[in-house]
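During the reporting period the student researcher (J.K.) took over the structure-prediction task from the postdoctoral fellow and processed the backlog of single-chain submissions. One of the processed entries is reproduced below for the supervisory committee.
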Amino acid sequence: MEQYLLLAQSLYPNMPTQVLNAFAKQWAETGDPNIAISQLRQTDIYKDAFPGNVLPNGQVRYDEVTYQGLKESYIGTLAEFGLPRATSEEMLSARFTSLIEGEVSAREFEQRITAVYRGINDNLEQVQNFYKSNYGIDLTSEAIFLGALDPTVGEEIIAGRITSAQIGGEAARAGFNITTTVADRLRGAGITQKQARELFTAAQTELPRLQEIQEVSQPGSEAITLEEFTDAAIFGDPEVTERITRLSASEQSRFSPTTGAARTGRAVTGLTEE
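J.K. obtained the following structure tokens:
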């Protein structure tokens, strides 16, 4: 038996001891390591040690060395972003089975974590808060990472959430509170965080000015809103554009480029391309 245990250790150096012992025993009984590992994979002890790896047809997603290497790569990626091993293992325990079942590769895992770190964790506090409050994420970096590890949420959705959070964060930075619906609409129009900053910085100046003109020239009229301002600036809404044009004409002045959004007699236009 000892001979088979040594052979088993040479094949699977990182296999949990209890599973390794069971494998060595199967090998000793069958005389064939391939039969032994095939039989072992159908046992509860194996399924507990390699959750998510056994398919309904009895086959496995990954061989045992690849499986354990994948887990180590996940932990290594989290360590690169400053998470201690114990914290990483605890985080993964809540997601690891679904990551395996979702066949999330080491590369995809790294891409998800990198995107969230650069787009959210390493960004404005307002961006972080928008992401956390609108996507059901707790106020910790670990929780933000954990949200990115859900294999039921595709990379495209994660990327979209990050961009929407950046837009919403820039709005908050300028003193505005927008919904995810508004942020998603702006994202759909191709607005980046840089462009959102220009838009909301312009709105900081222009909305009070336009509203002040309204109070003088159109007393009692409904004040122009941020949503209307963005409709004109980004989507070229003709009705809102005309309204802004009339207000500007009543002041007998034209918009001037101050924050990257040029003013014309027709609409607020020209957000800077990255």
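The committee noted the following: The two ends are 66 Å apart (CA to CA).
J.K. will present the remaining backlog at the next meeting.
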